[in-house]
Amino acid sequence: MYQSLLVNTEDLICTITINRPDKLNALNRTVIEELSQAVDAALADPATGAVVITGAGPKAFVAGADISEFLSLDTSGGAALAQKGQDMVFSKIENASKPFVAAVNGFALGGGCELAMACHLRVAAEQARFGQPEVNLGLIPGYGGTQRLTQLIGKGKALELMMTGNMIDAGEAKQLGLVNQVTTAENLLPATYTLLQPILAKGPQAISKVIAAVNAYYATDKDGFAEEVRLFGECFGTAEMKEGVTAFLEKRKAAFRS
Ligand code: COA
To answer: For 108, which of 23, 112, 144, 180 could close a Cys bridge (C-beta 3.0–4.6 Å)?
Structure first.
């Protein structure tokens, strides 16, 4: 069905694998368009409770946007590339109603680091490497990297990484708060699925509202506290909340998905 992606849904988790290992899974137009479609499909699918994004092959998660597409672009073409990618994939993932986790199996550079950062959580294999090397090409990040890296690790370190173009290893990424967990390559997907289990056992609407409320902190057009009040109120209109509270009072486990 897809040219550059593998998609598999099992036990409520949709795993999207970017599958261009010979080009280190670089994000060309086809990958961006297919990722957009796969994200839409996962969000619409009632059998999907969470999404994992990973890269094919032993070497790379995603080694960036596809550099071979750059030379034909002018100023407006460059801006359009960034805007389209942000709208079709990166912002869509960040604002998704279901949790997204990046399982970072290798290089996560440029657009790859940006894709991992657009996800809500990140698990890295020990050999993963992170960086925003765009300045090596006379470029800057265009898929939200200047904003999300600053949000995740703070201005000083974000500026250092983006101005030097240096890569960091998985251990340093964990120390900086860029990744949630580091594990072995063999354990990467099992650990990612394990991380999702307690999340999938919770009320899906509550999880979705946690994502929306936290994102409101960074939205310049929203008062995050007001947004939290609104979303908190909305919870009281859900069957999910009635089940959660009733289950607690009846001293039983809540069954949110049955
Ligand atoms: N866009 C397009 N092609 C890319 C790519 C990218 N971002 N990253 C890697 N590739 C391609 C290489 O051109 C090469 O293709 P070829 O075999 O047809 O020549 C193939 O993937 C393997 O990459 P290679 O550079 O040979 O692997 P390496 O192990 O020597 O180096 C990296 C790995 C990640 C250090 C190196 O590929 C790299 O620096 N990539 C670009 C990273 C980057 O600048 N990303 C930001 C883009 S805005």
So the answer is: 112
Tell me what pLDDT residue 226 has.
98
- Angle 144-146-149 (CA atoms, 0-180°, nearest 5)? 90
Token couple for 86: 């942000």
Q: Which residues line ligand 1 (CB under 6 A)?
A: 23-24, 26, 63-68, 107, 109-110, 133-134, 136-137, 139
Q: Residue whose CA is closest, atom 47 of ligand 1? A: 64
Confirm whether pTM is higher than 0.90. Answer: yes
Question: What is the Cα 94 distance to its own chain's centre?
Answer: 6
Q: Is the pLDDT of residue 55 over 90?
A: yes
Q: Tell me what percent of the residues of the chain surpass a pLDDT of 90.
A: 99
Is 250 marked active-site?
A: no
Ligand 1 centroid to Cα of residue 162, in Å, is 18
Residues 41-51 have pLDDT tens digits of: 999 999 999 99
In sequence order, what are the beta bridge partners of 183? 125
> So what's the pLDDT on residue 258?
73
Question: In sequence order, which residues have a C-beta less than 8 Å from that of residue 247 and are 6 or more positions away?
Answer: 253, 254, 255
Q: Rounded distance, CA 218 to CA 147, Å?
A: 10
Atom index in ligand 1 nearest the CA of residue 129 equals 34
pLDDT band at 1 (very low <50, low <70, confident <90, very high): confident
Q: Kindly name the residue from 34, 94, 114, 227 that is annotated as catalytic.
A: 114
Pocket test for ligand 1, best of 23, 29, 62, 132 (most atoms within 8 A of CB): 23
Q: Which positions ≥6 away from 185 have C-beta within 8 Å?
A: 58, 105, 125, 126, 127
